[in-house]
Amino acid sequence: MIEDPFLARLEQLVADGQRRILGLVGAPGAGKSTLAEQILEALPGRAVVVPMDGFHLANVELERLGRASRKGAEDTFDSAGYVALLSRLRAPRHGETVYAPAFRREIEEPIAGAIPVSPDVPLVVTEGNYLLLERGHWKAVRPLLDEAWYVEVDPELRRQRLVDRHIRFGRDEDAARKWVQQTDEPNAVLIDSTRDRADLVFRWPS
């Protein structure tokens, strides 16, 4: 469960009822989605999760671009679209529900319009890998966040989680370990280089 200091920060974020955006950043397998779900439980009816993963490019487009073998890298997302959505979420029109895409791991594809964000929800939690990256369209993300938390866990546990996840969604063990080594880990190194731009670090116990 979320410890009291973090709960206090969440309550402070939503205290005035105005729209706020909290970014959860971390390497693949760090536990960002788990933390986001715990925030939803801690703030029932006052938060919604909008994952960056909804902006994965479709598999057919990744194939066309020759990037399918690097799915998850910074250039395999519609980063400009993500920035545009955050801008809408930060200042929604009066009475407007904004719809965000979701990512479905069972089909490895994004689904448009899957997450409704009603105008009366004070906290949008967005979680993903590249929220603190300072290049391309990604550099426009950090100014749109009211607060950013860097999420981390023991590296060996994180890598094993990734292997288990890839196996769960269809890869054999050898393919899963190869993907983690050749794709997930280079991404993790890049993401870790952005750690200092976060407001605080949330570390899971080993």
From TrEMBL:
Molecular functions per Gene Ontology: ATP binding; kinase activity
Residues passing through the membrane, by range: none
All residue ranges annotated as the Phosphoribulokinase/uridine kinase domain in the record: 21-202
Keywords: Kinase, Transferase
InterPro entries linked: P-loop_NTPase (IPR027417), PRK/URK (IPR006083)
Matches recorded under NCBIfam families: PRK09270.1-2 (NF006743)
Protein name: Phosphoribulokinase / Uridine kinase family protein
Species for this entry: Paraburkholderia phenazinium
